[in-house]
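Input record (one chain):
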Amino acid sequence: MPTKPYYLAASIVCADMLHIADQVALLDKGKADYIHFDVMDGLFVPRFGLHPEMLQAIRSVTKIPIDVHMMVENPEPYIGAFAEAGADIIAVHAESTRHLHRTLTLIKKAGVKAGVALNPATPLDVLDFILDDIDLVVFMAINPGIVGHKLIPKAMEKIEDIRAKLKDHPHILLQVDGGVTPETAPKMLKAGANMLVCGSSTIFRPEAPVDQKLQELRTALNASL
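The corresponding structure, as predicted from the sequence alone:
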């Protein structure tokens, strides 16, 4: 069960790739709740990244929990590699596998928590038979795989609908990925989200270090609540 009103997950794909160790140190300093680790295959989404070796390197320098978001076709063959590299949670897209329950079972057998990710237009009834098998729902408030896209207008309404769906499963975190800005973040929390993926529109910005931006965002969210 969540122990905080909300959690901030730093999207490491938005970090300075030439200075990842320094960026992770700043995430530790800024008390990031999670590191959000995107895995993309160029098929399920129109981008590539990130790989297990990078996850293993990040895990070696921090104890921040890492949630892996697998935006790949047929994720089952890769679950073991990311679990062994140090993932704490692995989320797979409902749209990416024909056998969602089996895939979630494989994640649990690998010794990590399981999550399911949903694209913006995916019907929520896909959750009906797996709520007892997951620890996280990742809702894409933008179309996945593109950094910096604007929030889809119906996203807030769908966050509310997912929260209603989870009312009898308070242990499941509801993460919103995409479209998180200082302006939208408070609205997302009020709609029912309790984990926000923070990237280039919030904490990874050139005008201030990431630890400072984390603290600023947290201060603003606390004031809004």
